[in-house]
Amino acid sequence: MKTKYMDPYLAGFLLGMVLLATIFVTGRGLGASGALKSVVVAAVDGVAPAHAQASTFYEHYVAPGQESPLKSWLVFEIAGVLIGAFLSGLVSDRLKLVTEAGPRVSTRTRWIFAAAGGALFGIGAQFARGCTSGAALSGMAVLSTAGFVTVLAIFGTGYLLAWFVRGLWLGQKTKG
Amino acid sequence: MAPFVPDLISDQLNLVVALLLGIGFGAVLEQAGFSSSRKLAGVFYGYDFTVLRVFFTAAATAMAGVLLLGSAGLLDLDVIFVNPTWLVPAIVGGAIMGLGFLLGGYCPGTSVCAAAIGKVDAMFFVGGGLLGIFGFAEVYPKIEKFNDSTFLGPLMVYKSLHMSAGLFAFLLIAIAVGAFAATTWIERKVDPTGAPSLLFPAASHRWAAAGLLALGIGLLFVPDYKGRLLAKVSKPAFEAAHPVEVMSVDELAFRIVDREPRLRIVDVRDAKAFAASTLPGAVNAPVRDLFGKEWRDVLSPRHVKKVIVGADEAQERTACLLLRELGYENLAVLEGGFPGFERTIFQPVLLASNTPGRWDGDVKRFRESARTEILRMVQEAKASGQKKPKKEKKIQGGC
Predict the structure, then answer these.
(1) Does domain B231-384 have CATH number 3.30.230.70?
(2) Which of A28, A132, A165 lies nearest to residue B109, judging by beta carbons?
(3) What ipTM describes this predicted complex?
(4) Domain segments of chain A: what residues?
(5) What pLDDT does A36 receive?
């Protein structure tokens, strides 16, 4: 059975309205990588508080007496994303523990590349001060130069390098 | 005027708002198919341009909405968060993320979405993301200098490109619609059998595209709210039709010396002129700053007479009419502007009244005593330091 997704333009319009509502009500945009950062900061602070307070990276977030880094806007928003996506998957009958990979890629290879891609995104999002959601999409909506530079860099690099890793996504299934 | 944070919505309630908006965000991403890495990666190989369609439609929708709400005066564009630009780090970070997208098949937001419906590869992606951030944090002291380089502040893209916001919005929409048409054509070439799922027939897509283009053309002519209001109140015809109360120099001098509590002097000259010399107890609010919410406490009390002091009467009138448009009452402008006050009170050469008469001696005596008293009050005010309302903070955001 082929899973039916929403019409992309309708989905885009709705996503735009969610983003617009966010900007209108809260004055800020949506994001994702910032929530992951909060999780890392909280974890490091929990395991090695001395290390966290000595580091120039963590010190912005874990000053003594400051509230937990997990009590941040983006963490709550991402918790909402988990709930919203789960409900959507439930409604559309897409809840399933599965690994999705290109036709010629084994499950293990896919896991390794997914983790590597995630790591790269984690690093890149620090330099760019946000990922596809926080820097690119939200930045474009408020016409920030950073948003457009980031989106061009992400997709430009993607197209530039796509050919070299085409084996990850293209081709015919090998085993009969 | 929106946004409602932090005035109407507290920090605590804002977290609930975040959760609700997040639910909408996650549901839409999942429904769009962003929980599938193969679908996402398709944008780089031409077999599925869903990412491009959803992403650019969303950006165009939100951008058009922001501009329209701003122009209507419903959303304060000077307060909302605009991600600042660190130019080279943004390019390098974007490039790293581009490679990450290609290898991982997700971005952070979509990976969270996919993990929520059970995609194991997405869970690995999220885990990798956490490790990546941890690694970045550990080597941060070594890369801090690069990370903070080429900082350009909260730069607007249309200013970078030297065009109006409306023109930029129109061009972006035109490019997006062009890209939608082109990518549909490419998709059919690459994979004629696997036509993407489109809920609506092609005709309604054409109508939607035409509507979007019309919106873009409309945005070309949408003026910015503050500029429009300022232009409106500066027009001679508007000024003629809306007379303002003028307070004479002597009356203001008398009220200052009298230390009248129901008097508020609002100096609308720029900060430099204000710092050089001003009247006792005056607050400095350059004309364009008057829109700010921080002046509400100072300007709202109706029983307090707000006397506007500017570089000349024309500037005072503009400020006065603008304040009236913004809903403030009990306003007056100072006759002859600040220079008029200086001439009449501060410069002893011209102490005498311009129209000699029976009261000439009294006027002279009054102005003389007012001069000493007011100059003393100015010194006192300087010594005690000027109180300034806290400038409204820009909202913090970003990742």
Answers:
(1) no
(2) A132
(3) 0.95
(4) 101-176
(5) 94
